[in-house]
Each structure stands twice: as structure tokens, then as C-alpha cells.
Specification:
Layout: E1 2-14, E2 17-19, E3 25-29, H1 30-35, E4 43-48, E5 54-62, E6 69-72, E7 84-94, H2 95-99, E8 104-108, E9 114-119
Parallel strand pairs: 1-8, 2-6, 3-5
Antiparallel strand pairs: 1-7, 3-6, 4-5, 4-7, 8-9
Length: 130
């Protein structure tokens, strides 16, 4: 069996640009991509905290240190500069692959500077039966 797992997340990033006249994708500062384990052209899901819009597209790297989060193409109608977003990187994984998964959560400030990176073990909370 394959499960769809969250393998990385950029939490509460600020959209810096929205470019309608572009083929598509989301442009992300490559430092954020590396920390969240997102590869160039990997599919990601972006959720807008302002209006609950979810969009799936592929990620392309912006220069490291640029702090760019730019929605390109059609999602420019749904995401605006200043909006806060959650960017999820997901993977189809076997039970064996899941055993070694350590999802990373990248926290950023309002200018998309990394403030903290957490790596998580997969476990059930104490007191919860499987």
C-alpha cells in the first residue's frame, strides 16, 4: 500500500509577488526549498490562510536569499502579495519508506527569513492507541 505523506512544509510564508502572465508554477527562494526538502519542479500544494484557497503546482527555485514566494499564472488571481501561505511537499510512500520519514517544518517570519526548522519523528501521541 502507498500512502500520501507530508515530507516537508514551509509554514506561514508571505507571498511577495503574483505574476499572471507566466506559464505557471510557484517560485520559492531556493534556501527555503532546500530546508523543506522541495526539489526543483516537484509538485507542491499551496494553501492561502486568507481565503482557504488550495492550489497544486510545481516549484521553481528563486535565487537563494531572495525571499521570493511568487505565484505564477492562474493562481495569481487567488493569491496576492502579503497573503500568508502554507506550502506542502508530499510524496507517495510505501510502509517501509514511511518508517524512515522525518518531515521537516520550516518556520519563517513576515519577510520569509527562516526562524526555525523542526524535523519530526513519526509516532503516535502518548495515550493514543493505534
Amino acid at each position: 500500500m502507498q500512502r500520501l505523506m507530508c515530507k516537508g512544509k514551509i509554514h506561514r510564508a508571505t507571498v511577495t509577488e503574483a505574476e499572471l502572465d507566466y506559464v505557471g508554477s510557484i517560485t520559492i527562494d531556493q534556501k527555503l526549498m532546500k530546508e523543506a526538502d522541495i526539489k526543483p519542479y516537484e509538485m507542491v500544494q499551496i494553501t492561502n490562510l486568507k481565503n482557504a484557497t488550495r492550489w497544486k503546482t510545481y516549484a521553481i527555485p528563486a535565487p537563494e536569499g531572495s525571499k521570493r514566494i511568487c505565484l505564477n499564472g492562474p493562481p495569481a488571481h487567488l493569491f496576492s502579495p502579503g497573503d500568508l501561505v502554507i506550502i506542502l511537499s508530499m510524496a507517495q510512500m510505501s510502509e517501509e519508506e514511511i518508517e524512515t520519514l522525518r518531515p521537516k517544518v520550516v518556520f519563517v517570519d513576515e519577510e520569509n527569513n527562516i526562524t526555525k526548522v523542526e524535523e519530526h519523528d513519526l509516532h503516535w501521541p502518548e495515550g493514543v492507541k493505534q
